[in-house]
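Class prep. Sample record?

___
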Amino acid sequence: MLATKRYDYVPFESIQVHPSIANHRAVNPEKVRHYKDDILKNGLLEPLVVWERNQGEFFLVGGFHRRGAIQLIRQEKPDYYNRVDVRVVAGDLEEMRALNLKLNADRLDAKITEYFDTVIFLNNANWDKQRIADFLDKSVSWLEEILRFVPSMDPRVRQLLHEGKISWAKAKVICKRVLEAAPGQEKAVADAALQELETSNGKPVVKRVLSPRTATKRLARHIKQNPSATYTVSAEDLFSLLCLLAGEGNGKTHLHVERVRNKFPGLVD
């Protein structure tokens, strides 16, 4: 049973990374540097979340950017943060993976693809559907759709969904067509569906990278977590941000995304 055992103050070097528990998105170096400056200025305001698998054996569950920031601090100041505040949780590996996902989802606008592997893992670990749904704050019907479509989902469809180039509704339509295909024809049906997607109205169907609503929500969250945060940007940085908000990449969407990601932490994945 997942439970918080205690709050503690443990040696930083005792906190390990478990191979089955990782941050669901790549750790952002810019965000790590921001946390470094913030921790040096204000201290570690939010404890790391660690799993005590055995007495005195700690594995990180939540706080990967903060851990990276402390590592940077210790590289420059080895006598800093020898010990850190932690929230110690107990449970089995399945519960830790679920908690790890939940912590990431609560902090970010999690993509549905980030739930796939954990949902299937917990289902295979004999968690009943209601328990999984309750833990992830989702509905059972949402969960059942993942369990129905994801195991046989074409990898290309999953990648497009993860990149935000198609919606979950569109992905389910393609998956349904594949599931209803005659035996041996699944790949051909998937190929045809993807071809239709690429040629729809003569243009690839691409979801806007960043909408004004999403940007406002993410920026508000960032300000709440970092009330003293400031941005130093150039005219080109601002131009890239406006292009993404308008859905106009001018053939350079990937360049705009990288510029905005580096200059406006938290606004784009």
